[in-house]
Structures are given as C-alpha cells and as structure tokens.
Amino acid sequence: MEFLTGVREKETVGIREILEGDYEGKAVRLNGAVHNIRRMGDVAFVILRKSEGLVQCVYEEGKSSFRLKDLKEESTVEVAGVVAREERAPQGFELRLSSVKVLSEPAEPLPLAIHKWKMGTSLETKLALRPISLRNVRERAKFKLQEGIVRGFREFLFRQGFTEIHTPKIVSRGAEGGANVFKLNYFNKRAELGQSPQFYKQTMVGVYDRVFEAAPVFRAEKHNTTRHLNEYISLDFEMGYIDGFEDVMAMETGFLQYTMELLEREYQKELKILEVELPKIGRIPQVRFDKAKELVSEKYHRKIRNPFDLEPEEENLIGRYFKEEYDSDFVFVTHYPSKKRPFYAMDDPEDSRFTLSFDLLYKGLEVTTGGQRIHDYATILDKMAKRGMDPEDIRDYLMIFQYGMPPHGGLGIGLERLTMRLLDEQNVREATLFPRDVTRLTP
C-alpha cells in the first residue's frame, strides 16, 4: 500500500531558488519551454521560459552532450548544467549546459514571433492566437500585474475585517434590471447570467457585516467599443454600519494605496518590462456630478448636452481637469442623478433628485461605481412603487430589509479597466486574458 504524504520534493530548481541560494558553480536541473535559440557559431544561447521569467542557457559545441539542431523553439525540456554569474543575462546568471532532455515538441512552427520584445502584430491577431500570444514576455507581464491588483484587493480587505464570499452567477433576475441580460433556459425556467452580485453581497452584509468577491459578471450590451466587454471581472465589496457613502470611497482609496505599494514592492520586474509608472495616491479629490460638468464646460468650452449622465468625452475631460489642477490621476464623482442609478441607491436626503453614490474615474475612465444603499424596508418599497416595480419579483432580496439591515454601501471595480489604465493601453481587450465581446466567443 502506498500513501501520499504531501507535496513531493522535485529534483529541479526554480529561478527564485537559484537567486536566493548558494548555487554559483554548482550543477542544477531546470525545466521550462525553449523560448528562443540564438546561434553564434560554436556557441548558442538557449533561452528557457519559466513562470518566473527567462533563463539564459549556454550551449557549447563539444561540451554539451546533445545536438543543438535537435532542439526546437517551444519544446518543453529539462536541462542540466552549471550555474555561472552573468550580469548581462536576464536573471543575472546563466546555466552552462551539459545535457537536455526533451519532454515534448511542437507539431508546427509558431505563427507569431513571441520571443520578440514586441510581436509587431495587430490586436485582432493577438486575440485570435491568444493561447500563443500570451507566451510573449510583455503579455505575460500584463497579467502578472493584474494578479497583483487582485492580490492587493484580497489582502487589504482581509486586513480590514472583510469576509470573502462566492455568489451564484445563474440568477432568476439581474440586479441592475433592464434588457442587457443574457437569458438562459434553466430546466424550463427563466434564468439570467448575473449582471452583478449586488443582491447577494447586500444579503451577506446582514451575515458578516463586511464582504467581498472577485468574480465574473455579464452584461449583454451591444457595445463594440474600446472600453466595453460582455464578461469582465468585478472586484466587489459591501460594508455595513457605515456613517455615509464617504466610508466606501475611503475604503477604496485605502485599497488603491495598499495595492500600489504591493506592486512597487513585489512586481518591480513586470513594472520595468512594461515601463509602468505607478500613480501617486496620497489623496483623491471628490467632486459632485453637477459641479464636475460645470467645471469642464467652463474650462474646455464644452456645452452640457446630457444633464443626467456623463458622456465618455466628459469623463475624459474631468480626468484631464483634475490632473491639471490637482495632479491627480483619480477623482471621485459623487451624487449621480437618481434617475440614472438603480432603485436600491439611497437618495440624497437634501435633494432626492440625486443619490449618495459615486463613480471613480482613473485617467478619465470610469473604473468603479458605488455608493450607499437603502437599508429601510418602507423606503425601498416606496422607491420601487415610484418606479413601477413589483416587489414580488424580488421578494427574496427584500426579505433582508423586512427583517432588519444596518446602514451599508459598497462598490464594484472593473478589473480589466483598472488594469488597462494602469498600463496606459487604449483598448480594454489588451488587459483581458480571453475577451468576450459582441463578436468574440473564442478562443
């Protein structure tokens, strides 16, 4: 009888082990994919690609017990050799090869030059060949930074006493309402893909006080723009016992500060590869919705055309205004009109035409929507009645107010948009592993 007792020790080592250990002049074994082969007469550089980065391996004719011509790019291999210091190599060391064991070989040549710093191809081609294009060093770096954003979100909120939850994505009714839902036949019942975890995270405030989730949401919007996706990752949190929606904005400010410090500390390699300059977030200005429209109208001589919403151009100008006036890449725009916010948004008690809600703009692009929610049962029923909504349609959700809820609020952050702005990309698909939009369902 054999038993498994835990993670098995491997004979191979990783980049971190070599960098942190005393391996110079010692023989080691390494595995990875052949990223590139550079032939230089009797010597060749075999560049291995590992999850941690690239490793330079040196092949010398007569000293390495394999034929270089038998090695193909994108073969997966296990190599053996001696570690030598080399400051010009990607990791500050190289491996002088003695042997190579081929684990697998590609069936065809690569359709993209993924070993080049910039692949020099269109976004459409990169997305059509996504399983291959993601192997490029710069593409990989984008999504390591995205990992850091999600990691920062989790770590910071855990420290603030939040509980992580996992809510259903097949629902009977979308939280936002409207027609932009993906409808499903769920065992002959009407169902939808969730537009937001809103109802569930509010429910869980009544259980844990503070909750968060990082998960996909779905919007059946027929937009084909550089800023819209039909499936994206939403970083959501909801917090109870707040004094006002300002508490929610303050929590997001703390998350952004923590995350930028994390990226600066632990993702220097990716920041350098992508030439990313992290934003300074000592403080974030806030401005009322109507005031923001007036400010950009006056400064940039733009007529206010829609008094109830911000157009993309207006968002861009608001971002420009606060960068020029306050040197801030971020700005909270508060008190959105009630008619443009969901029924559960709390109205401003001083002027019910507006809500205690906000958007966060990052370099002129909305990356967050949030605010304070109605927590009183009679108040939410009254607002639903004014909008012609039937309480029976969402009676499970209304149960939480019927049996008591604390003052609470929360937000949703679009992960891909936040990443897009951090990278200074012009299309949100550049910051999405496998984009889903009105035309793309594969790969």
Helix share of residues?
25-40%
State which percent range the strand residues make up: 25-35%
Number of helical segments with 4 or more residues: 12
How much is the average pLDDT? 95
**Strand neighbour order, sheet with most strands:** 6-10-11-18-17-16-13-12
Structural class label: alpha+beta
SSE topology string? HEEEEEHHHEEEEHEEHHEHHEEEEEHHEH
- Spans with pLDDT under 50 lasting ≥5 residues? none
Instruction: Report the biggest beta sheet as strand number plus sense, adding barrel if it closes.
Output: 8 strands, mixed
**Backbone shape:** elongated
Rg for CA atoms: 26 Å
How many strand segments?
Answer: 18
How would you classify the quaternary structure? Answer: single chain
Distance between the termini: 43 Å
What does this entry look like structurally?
- The protein has about 450 residues and is of the alpha+beta class.
- The protein contains 12 helices and 18 strands.
- Strands 6-10-11-18-17-16-13-12 form an 8-stranded mixed sheet, sandwiched between helices. The chain has a 5-stranded mixed barrel with strand order 1-2-3-5-4.
- A hairpin with a 2-residue loop joins β8 and β9.
- α4 packs across α12 and α8 crosses α9.
- The protein is elongated, with a radius of gyration of 26 Å.
